[in-house]
Amino acid sequence: MKKQLDILLIEDNFLEIMKMKRTLSLLELNHSLTEAKDAEIALEILQGNNRFPDLILLDLNMPKISGIEFLEILKSSENFRHIPTVILTTSDNKTDLEECYKIGVSGYILKPLKYEDYVKKIEAVLTYWSMNELKRY
Fold first, then answer.
1. Looking at residue 134, what is its pLDDT?
2. Is 134 within the bounds of a domain?
3. Mean pLDDT of each 10-residue bin along the chain, 137 residues long
């Protein structure tokens, strides 16, 4: 049975945020989406909530704190390390990929250029995490 997910999207590009919202709407998914335009805002959101998101979708290339730096902070925190985090990026840099998995990322998705391919990837990721036995904190 699929569950409704609470998703935290950490993305600084307005068009990418709109693309994610459009995709959720197109797929008729009733997941809750919280946006953070940078990692500092995401940390404030996480620290200010007594309930954590079911899934974090994280861009790598962001101002202030990079996606990798955010991932290091997240996975070194006793409070936050359990949150599944999937990288959603245009970076196919092998070093970034290896570093993310070394830190403890749950997945690494390259954003495709074609919107139809993007929709398929997002649908697959969200379907998986909505069927996964997530422990709600």
1. 62
2. no
3. 86 96 92 95 90 94 92 95 95 93 96 95 94 66
Cα within 13 Å of Cα(7), Cβ side = 27
**For residue 93, what are the CA distances in angstroms to 23, 61, 89, 99, 125?**
26, 12, 10, 10, 21
Please give the structure tokens belonging to residue 62. Answer: 């962001």
Nearest to 28 by CA among 8, 2, 56, 57: 2
133 within domain boundaries: no
Note the pTM of the prediction, 2 decimals.
0.93
Q: How many domains does the chain have?
A: 1
CATH of the domain at 20: 3.40.50.2300
- Can you read off the two tokens belonging to residue 97? 């990929």
